[in-house]
Amino acid sequence: MATIKDIAQKAGVSVSTASRALNHNPRISEKTRQRIEEIAKRLGYQPNYNAQNLTRGESNMVGIIFPVTSDTAPANPFHIDLMRGISMALKPIHYEMVVAIAPTADDLLQSVKSMVEQSKVHNFLVFYTTKNDPITEYLRQKQLNFVVIGHPNHRKDRYVDNDNIAAGRVATDYLMDHQQVKCPAFLQSASDWVYEQDRNHGYQQSMRNHQLPAISWRYTEDGPAIKDFIKQHPQIDSIVCADDLLLVRLVRQLQEFNLPTICFNNSRLMGMLMNQEDKVDLQPRKLGQQAVELLFEPGEQCRIVDFKIND
């Protein structure tokens, strides 16, 4: 493999001149730069982007920060698709991913601090939003470059998101229009995620627009099971489920009732497990790609990615 020394020798210039030319230093004339670039191309030179970034005091890594996740939690297919989109967007700019995932907020914070202090990671994508989050507070204090995926809790945070209120409303409208139902119930997890709250708001908007009462159920370890809840509310004739992993958890109980159901996201895994349900495709790969683009566009505040219904 050709080195910068090989290029310099072939061009009859110093190593520092060859390096400056390949890094588009304005001190190097256009004629010299083009000649050195042609030699580098002929020799098959592959620049060391990591070394270039470390010269500037940072690595060519983007830190991916997952929400606090227990060691036994199943992989979230939405996150997997996000990472596919991120990987596609990072490849052409010669960056790689490094992941922070931990079972507690303290452990997660220590992992992120290690990325910053030891690995010189200065760019981050945060896969969640939550109030009083110590991880994003640390990123702000250190004035690091980061983008959150979801609706931010801090007004200055840059973010990529879907319009989850609109998604909840459209999903409910679609279910009633296409399945001819009258009383869909909204199911959400025990977690107080902003995206679930927003989808619930959209569901409630749709119910008000149809002049129908809203019925919501939240999963809790010690609360009523969904099958008991439905039996207590026999008017329920369909389901809007705020999260696909929650639907996987509940699918056996719900099979007893065979209710028309719509859920959020259209991952391949969800398609294989529950191909009978209508799904709101949040386009997580596109979210990941847009998050990377926004990360390296510091003058831009946010991007909203469209969703679509897959039936």
Concise synopsis of the structure shown:
This protein has 311 residues and is an alpha/beta fold. The chain has helices at 4-11, 15-22, 30-43, 49-55, 77-90, 105-117, 134-141, 164-179, 194-209, 226-232, 244-255, 268-273, 284-295; strands spanning 61-65, 96-100, 123-126, 145-149, 158-161, 184-188, 215-218, 238-241, 261-264, 278-281, 302-304, 308-310. The chain has three domains: 4-47, lambda repressor-like DNA-binding domains (434 Repressor (Amino-terminal Domain)); 61-162 and 285-306, Rossmann fold, CATH 3.40.50; 164-282, Response regulator (Rossmann fold), CATH 3.40.50.2300.
Features:
six-stranded mixed β-sheet, 434 Repressor (Amino-terminal Domain), 3 domains, elongated, Rossmann fold, 311 residues
User: What is the helical fraction, as a range of percent?
Assistant: 40-55%
Number of helices: 13
**First-residue to last-residue Cα separation:** 51 Å
Query: What is the oligomer described by this structure?
Result: single chain
| Percentage beta strand | 15-25%
Overall 3D form: elongated
- Which secondary-structure class do the elements indicate? alpha/beta
Major sheet? 6 strands, parallel
Q: Can you offer a commentary on this structure?
A:
- With 311 residues, this protein is of the alpha/beta class.
- The protein is built from 13 helices and twelve strands.
- The protein has three domains: 4-47, lambda repressor-like DNA-binding domains (434 Repressor (Amino-terminal Domain)), CATH 1.10.260; 61-162 and 285-306, Rossmann fold; 164-282, Rossmann fold (3-Layer(aba) Sandwich).
- The chain has helices at 4-11, 15-22, 30-43, 49-55, 77-90, 105-117, 134-141, 164-179, 194-209, 226-232, 244-255, 268-273, 284-295, and strands at residues 61-65, 96-100, 123-126, 145-149, 158-161, 184-188, 215-218, 238-241, 261-264, 278-281, 302-304, 308-310.
- A six-stranded parallel sheet has the order 2-1-3-4-5-11, sandwiched between helices. The protein has a six-stranded mixed sheet with strand order 7-6-8-9-10-12.
- Helix 5 links the parallel strand 1 (61-65) and strand 2.
- The radius of gyration is 25 Å and the shape is elongated.
- The termini are far apart.
- 35% of the residues are buried.
